Amino acid sequence: MAKKQELESKIKSLVSDRKRAYCQTFGGDSEAVKAVLVDLSYFCRANQTTFHEDPRAHALLEGRREVYLRIKQHLDLSDDELFETLK
C-alpha cells in the first residue's frame, strides 16, 4: 500500500510540475499569449464541431482540438482535477 501511495505522490508531483510549465507558457496576460490562444482556438476548432465527411480529415481536426483542450485543462483545472483525468 505504501508503494501505491508513493507512486501516486510522484505522479501528482509530475502533474503539478507540468501544470506549472503550461501556465508559465500559456497563462500570462500578455497580448502575445492572448493572441496565441485565440489563434489556437480558431485553428483547433475549440468551440465548433470537428465533423468532416472524410474520416481522415475528421481525425486531423479532432487531433487539433484535443491539443487545444489539453492546454486549456492545464490552465483551468486544479492539480487534483488534472490528476483525476489520468484515471
Which structural traits does this protein have?
87 residues, mainly alpha, 4 helices, 0% strand, flat
How many domains would you count in the coordinates? 1
- The number of distinct helices, counting runs of at least 4 residues, comes to 4
Give helix and strand order, one letter per element, not per position: HHHH
Shape: flat
* Low-confidence regions: none
- Count of DSSP strands: 0
What is the CA-based Rg, rounded?
16 Å
Helix content: over 70%
Largest sheet: none
Mean pLDDT: 96
Tell me the distance between the termini.
18 Å
Strand content: under 5%
Q: Classify the secondary structure makeup into a structural class.
A: mainly alpha
Note down, in words, how this protein is organized.
By secondary structure, this protein is mainly α. The chain has one domain (2-85). It contains four helices and no strands. It has helices at residues 2-26, 31-43, 55-76, 79-85. Helix 1 packs across helix 4 (79-85). The protein is flat, with a radius of gyration of 16 Å. It starts with a helix and ends with a helix. The model has no long low-confidence stretch (mean pLDDT 96).
